[in-house]
Every structure is written in structure tokens, then in C-alpha cells.
Amino acid sequence: MGSSLSLIASVAILRSSINDFVPQEMQSFLQELAGRFTSELTMVISDSHEESKNHLFHALMMYLGSNAFSTPSVPRRITVGKNENIKALAYGLDRNCKIVDTFLGADMKWSYCSEFNSALQYEMKWYELRFHKRHASMVRSKYLPYIIEMAKIIKDQNRVVKFHTTRGGRDGWNFKGINLDHPMTFDTLAMDGNLKQKVIEDLDRFVRGKNYYRKIGKVWKRGYLLYGPPGTGKSSLIAAMANHLNFDIYSLNLSAVSSDSSLESLLLHMSNRSILVVEDIDCSVELQNRQAGDRPSDHDKTPRKPQEKAVTLSGLLNAIDGLLSCCGDERVIVFTTNFKDRIDPALLRAGRMDLHINLSYCTFSTFKQLAETYLDICNHDLFPRIEKLISEVQVSPAEVAGELMKIRNPETSLEGLCGFLECKREAGKSSAPPTSVPESLEDAPGGV
């Protein structure tokens, strides 16, 4: 033990003597000379680049931290932390720690270094990468771009979904947004099975389509129109989409926006990987169908003073599909309405609302999903009776869910639902027979 300490002390004294007595020029020459006889290259990635933040450095923090426990050479010291904006713990390398990452069969030897500059009162931080000279081209063209791509995926998967609104009375989003901890997912969403799968596939195809959208010269965005009677799951579908994509939600209340220029400013301040939601668009402002000559009824429109400006149809079209729409990537736009025929066709065409999703009244298939979710049953003697009743009345999934939530006992709960449906059937006998349209998904029509 004593001999080991003596050796360490001797090395430290020798190193100090070299720094004190050997000129810096000679040290640089010796380092360059030694470099000629080594097969390794060293690459330095500092925390800043040309007086601005070095994005590669911060990508490395995420990438190497996520690999800290998955490499054979686990670092001896690892940092760990968490804040309100991420879902899981974040790991990283501590100062002077090393890790070996293997990429395409080649060893990439990383070390994390830091040093406090007393003159600048600033801690300089950097990563050093050592690799064999023959891999230099691969590191530049494949490895470093791969790190940036993987860091983005890690960041996107770990970020907490935020909910932003414009309901503060000013033309701007609320400052930080609030964490959206909505429990709705596609697993718990009561929706026709085939339609649900088509929506999931369309969303997945969209998030994988960055290169395709660039290839065809289109902005990387996707529009969905959700329409149908109240209580059919439009808001629940939006929450499931946000949780599936891990996208922030920006809920836009058009009647609270004072002008077209204010609307443009709002969209410019949205983040990428986000969903813009305009609920009940036919009621927000006067954007009704010009071809049908519709005018909003007194209860549909928000009253405004004569001198007060408002968002126009032209302004909305330019905001979601004009040059402004290219100022952001990976965005989804969702409009909801109870009355599709009240919306101007210019808003509905492909490129604006690409998919039209009809969410209709509860079907027996939807009921079975609700029964499994709320009562943990897949079958029951009362199911045939409920199937017949659902085919005879117009009842929303929200109404059915409300009845199933009243009592946890399956037998009693289903009996209560049967009574509720029979009451609706009796009440509807004096009115016209129901005309229920099944849930469906349709592509938007071409340009107008």
C-alpha cells in the first residue's frame, strides 16, 4: 500500500515538474510527435460552439447517459436527476469518467471532462472521443448524426406532455403550460376497433414521414377533422392521440384571439411535436359554410362589439396552410365540430384537414369495450338485450359510460343500463326514428 502511494506521489511530482520547466511549445511538439506514432484520433466536443450552445454536446449528455448501464464498461461515477419536465430519471457521466460505446463493431471511447476557469469564473465542460483512425469517415458521416438522432428520440420519449391555452384574455399562450396527466390512451378509448387501428396507423405513418414529406415538398403536418354528436369521444380521442405521440396540446379558443395577426403570432410560438386543437370550430367565430349560405345562430357565435376585430376565414386558412405553416415541424392540427355541414369546404380540403373522422352514437362494439373497461367483463347474459336496445336508440358513449360508472357490480350496473336505454326508447317513440351513421374515417376531398 505504501509503495503504491509513493509511486502516485512520484508521478504527480514528475508531471508538475514537466509543466513548470518544459516550455509550452516543447510540450506541444512532444504531443504532436507522440501522435504520429498512435493509431487513435481524439475529437473534442465542448459545451459551446462559436459563442452559442453546442447542440451536439447536449445530445451526448442524453445519449451517453441513457447507455450508462447498457455497456460492458459501466462508469464508476454516474450522475442522476429528474425535474418536472421529464417522466423518468435522467443519467449522465460524472467528471473524469469514461465509457466505451460500440457502433458498427467499432469501439468509441468517451470521457467527460470539466475545469473551472478562475479568470472567467466559468466551468468549462467537454467530451473527448477517441477512436481508431480508420473509423474517421464513419464517425463523421454516421456515428455523430446517429447520436443526434437518438438523443432526439430519447428526449421526445421522456418529455412530459404539456397543455397550453389562450384563455388568459391575452393574445398569447400561457407561459409554461401545465402538465397533461390525462389517463386516456388508445387502449382505454372506446371506439370502433377497425377505425381505431386506422387512426393509430395514420399517426405512426405521419411521425415516421419526415424524409417523405421533405421529398415531396410538403410541410410536415397532418390535419384531422373530428365530427359527430356531443359525447361521442372527440375530446377523448385528442387526449389518446397526445399520449400516443407524446405531443403537447395547444388548445386554441378562436373567439379569444383579437385578429389574424394575433393568430399568426400564436402559431409561431408553438413548439414542434405538438397538436393544435380548435374545438367546436363552427361555433368559435363566423367561419360557417359560405357555399351553403349559413349564418351562425345567436347561441352559436360569440358576441363582439362593433369595433372589435376577429379572426377571419382567410386569416385562418393562411395560418394553417400558408407560408406560416412551414415555421414548425411535426405538427398535428385537429378541428372538432358537431355539425360538419356548417364548415366552409375550404377548411376541409386535403392539406388542411387530411382525414375526416366521424364519431357517431354508441354501437354494440363500443359498448363491449366500455363494459370491459368499466366492469371487467367480456360477456354477460344481458348483452343480447343491450345489443337490441342500442340498435333502437341514439345514445352516446359518454351516456353509456356514465351509467356503467354508477354501480361497480356488473349485474346491477347492466340492469340499470337496460332501464336507462328503455326509457330513452320510450321517450323517442313520439319522435322521428333515429338515423345513426356508423363511425368512419374518410380522406379529405381535393383542393377547392
UniProtKB/TrEMBL annotation:
GO terms for molecular function: ATP binding; ATP hydrolysis activity. GO terms for biological process: response to stress. It catalyses: ATP + H2O = ADP + phosphate + H(+). Its cofactor is Mg(2+). Residues 220-363 form the AAA+ ATPase domain. Signal peptide: none annotated. It comes from the Eukaryota. It holds the Pfam family AAA_assoc. Keywords: ATP-binding, Hydrolase, Magnesium, Nucleotide-binding. Residues 426-448 are annotated as: Disordered. Belongs to the AAA ATPase family. BCS1 subfamily. This is AAA+ ATPase domain-containing protein.
